[in-house]
Amino acid sequence: MHIEKNVFESVIGTLLNIQGKSKDGLKERKDLIAMGIRTELGPLKKGKRTYLPPAAYTLSRKEKKTLCKFLSEVKVPEGYSSDIRRLVSMKDLKLKSLKTHDCHVIMEHFLPIGIRSILPEKVRSSITKLCSFFKSICSKVINPAILPMLQKEIVITLCELEMFFPPSFFDIMVHLVVHLVKETQLCGPAYMRWMYPVERYMKILKGYVKNRSRPKGCMVERYIVEEAIEFCTEYLSNVQSIGLPKSQLVEKKEGKNLIGNKIVAVSRVERDQVHLYVLHNENEVEPYVEIHKDVLRDPASITERLRCLAYGPSFHVFSYSAYAINGYTFYTKEQDDKSTMQNSGVTVVAEAMHISSVKDLNPKFANLSYFGVIERIWVFDYEKFQIPIFGCKWVENNNGIRMDKSGFLQVDLNRVGYKDESFILASQARQVFYVNDPKSTKWSIVLFSNKVIDENTGDQGDIDVEIESFTRNDQDENIISNDSYIRNDHNEGKMAIMKSIIRARGKGYLKVSIDICLDGDVPLSSSLIRVDDDAGYLKVSPYDNGTCPSKQISILSSKDKGPKI
Predict the structure, then answer these.
(1) Which of 124, 197, 462, 554 could be a cystine partner for 119, CB 3.0 to 4.6 Å?
(2) Under 8 Å between Cβ of 540 and 553
C-alpha cells in the first residue's frame, strides 16, 4: 500500500514538477554528466541562468493543464473514493492533500487515462504498464499461475523506465516493486495484509476519545465496554447482536428509495413496455413459458404473485431521484448533475441474437453488455408487491462502443439506440461511471464501480477483473531499441536557480534580486517583497508587479551567515 503511494508520488511529482516530489533537477542532471549517460540532457548555460533541456518525461505547460483538467473533471460513484476534483489545483498545476487511498485510485484507474494524449508513446506505454501491474497485484483474486509472468513483466517495465527517467528516480521504494510478486506468492493477496482497514479503525478509535488529556485510557475503556455489551447480548433473548443489521441486507437486494417521492401517471405504451419486460424476467413466470397452458388450466397451481403479475401494474407509479439496490446507490441523470458524485451510469448483461447477414438462417444467441445512463427511476405497484424499474438512455452497440488498442472500453454517449427497450429491472443493474477521454472529446471511457453484492452473504467488495498480461508485444521491440531521451516537440525546459542577492531595504522589507524561471514563466528579478519571520524561515511573497505571477519563495534565515535561498 505504501509502496504504491510512494511510487505514485515519484511519478506524478516528476511529471508535474512538484517541488519536493520531483526526481529531476539540477543535481540530477549533473549526475548524468558525471556518469557519462544522456549527455544531451545536461544543464546548459544561458547568460546568467542554467537551462535544463526537456527530458522524455518533461511535460509542457499545455500538457500539465490537460492532465490536471482531466482529473479536475472526474466524478466517481458514491463510496468509490474521495472527491478527486478537490485534490487538483489548476492554479499551480499540481495535486495536493493526497491520502494513501487517493494515490491508490489515481495510480490504478485515472493516471493511465489522463496521460493518453500527452507524453511520447514509449514513455506513456511504460507508465501505463506500471499502473497496470499495481492494479493486477492488488486484485482480490489472483491466479498463482500468472505470478511468474507478472514478475517477468515488471522487471521489463522497470528496465524501460530506466531508459527515460533519471537514476535518482529509482530509490528503494521503486526497487521494492520487484519483490511484490514474491511477497504475494508467500503471503497471499495484498488486500488481506494492507493497512486500509487499520487506518479506518484508527478513525473509530479516535472517536472514542472524550478526554484529550487521557486519549489512551478513553480508547481502552470504550473498547472494553463495547466488548462486554456484545458478549452480554448473546445471553439476552430477542436482542440483535452488534453487526450489520439484517434489514440492510434486505435493502441491498430489494432496494430502498432515497431521494424524491412523487406519484406520476405513465402512458399505456410505457406501462405495457415495462409490464412485458417484467413478465419476461420474473422467476415466477419463467416456468410457465415452457409448460404453458397445461399448468395454467389448473388454477390451484397459480401463486398469488403470479396472479398479481397477470393483472398488471397500476398506471400511477412512484418516481424517485435516487435508489439504493444491489449494494449500489443509483441517481437519475438530473440528480447526478446536481451532485458531486456520478451515480447514473449503468450496465446490464442481456442475451442478444447475432446474425452475420440478412440471409443468415442460423442466428446465434450470446450475452452482450449494454451501457447507458439512468433517466427515470420508477416503482410499479402490483397491489401485493412493488417492482423498481430503471428507464435508461442506452448507447447503440454497433457504432457506439469500441475497445481501443490500449485495452480501454470506450462509449459514445451521444449515439443513442434501443429507444423502444429503455427499461430494465433495478435488480439487474450494475453500476459504471464514465470519464472523458483526453484523446478524443467524442468518446468516454467506461470504468466499473468497485462495489458488488454477494448473493449468498450480502457482503460487498472490490469487483475482481481477470488479470491479463500488461506487456504488449507490438511495443517491446520499439521501446528497447529507442534511444531518444530528449523531447523535440516542445522546448519548455526548466531554469535552475543561478544566484541570489538579498539586501535590506527598510523595516519589514527586503530587496531581492534572483533569477528563477520554472515552466516557462517570466523570471523574477529585483522585486519588492515583504518578509515574515517564522521559526527560522523567511516566507517571502513577491508582489505582482505586472511582469511575474505571484509565487512563494522560502528563504532560510541564519543569524551568523545571513539569509540564504
Answers:
(1) 124
(2) yes
